[in-house]
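Hi all, long-time lurker, first post. I run a small reading group and we've been trying to get comfortable going from sequence to structure in the token notation. Rather than ask abstract questions, I figured I'd post a concrete chain and ask someone more experienced to write out its structure so we can walk through it together at our next meeting. Sequence below, copied exactly:
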Amino acid sequence: MDVIVSALLLLFHVLTGSGAQTGPQSASTQQLLTTIMTAPAAQQQQLPNGTAQPNQTKPGEAQTGTGTSPGTIYVKHDPQPDAPEIKGIYVTAHSAGGSRMESLLKLLDITALNSMVIDVKDDYGYITYPTQNPELLKLGKPKKYIGNVSQMMERLKKHNVYPIARIVVFKDTVLARSHPELSFRRHDGSVWQNGKKDSFVNPYRKEVWDYNIAIAKEAVKLGFKEIQFDYVRFPEGFEKKADSLVFNKTKDKRVDTIAAFVKYAKSQLEPLGVRVSVDIFGYAASVPAAEGIGQDFVKISKHVDVISPMVYPSHYSTGWFNVKDPDKNPYATIKGAMLDTHKKLKPIGSYKPIIRPWIQDFTASWLGKGHYIKYGKAEVDAQIKALNDTGIHEYLLWNANNRYTADANF
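-- Answer (accepted) --
Happy to help. Here is the structure in token form:
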């Protein structure tokens, strides 16, 4: 009886507000986004994919909602409760293991930036350092981009850098080619690939789940404090090609399969004291679930510590947020995207994760004359101001070449 009373009291506090919480990717985006919505958006750039966070649960706070057994109270814990507000940059394995790392560390030393998102499994599917882990070597192919990963981690620690391991999950050309049975095949037995010659592995296959989670677990042992999963989805336009491909599947919907992977990954990694984050298209906050690729913004967000919508202004087409050329108005575009994000996640209450968007620190010249502007200090500052004005104080900067605006107001 005492347990029931305690549960009811906790529920009362949540409902009345007395217990209220205070608190990437390379893609054929135009094809993908026209699957999600009618307005097109063009891009050729490789991508990953507050006030205090309004609904971020503090350790020990209770929450209720779907996804738990009837009559139970779900308690969400932040595995990194002492983590700072993250302001980070994307770092390729080539940069992390090469000479550019010195200048990137200096950038963090002299600015308020404090984190690096480093490729541990890259966009092709390679493990980016020479692992000796037999579990990973069964399916994975390591490279020596980061020749001495332990030495790199010590270097990050010396510079007080919060390390985040980026793991590209279902876009995995390497695994698809070496194990076609784990991928999507044409009827002639060949492995399907998109227009850029990239292949995906099958999110229905639990072997693929466990392989990526094993990489994440090794990253934790190396000292990474957060695992960021990217390409947590089916291939773009998948609903148009699924019937012509051969692959194993269950009766579950694609959105439920992807959400189940995220939930499973979270359950495997949280006991290790590491945060789990997921990159997702920024549009996902503004439109219904993308059934074709299996991404449901809300379902994914419920099972992660951090959600990172990729809200690059260059990726919104004419008319979004009442802006003719979103790339030319970064403040209005980011503000509109964040307002939609808050609105989308409000119904899940204390399941709401930290919102830490990817923002643009590159020039989208492919948009064509008159539709883009050169990005520098003013444009980066405008995006950060829009985040702050909508209660978001964490963000990640994306530049595929790892060249960042050093004098921005971070």
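A couple of things your group might point at:
The chain has one domain: 25-53+86-398.
The CA atoms of residues 235 and 293 lie 6 Å apart.
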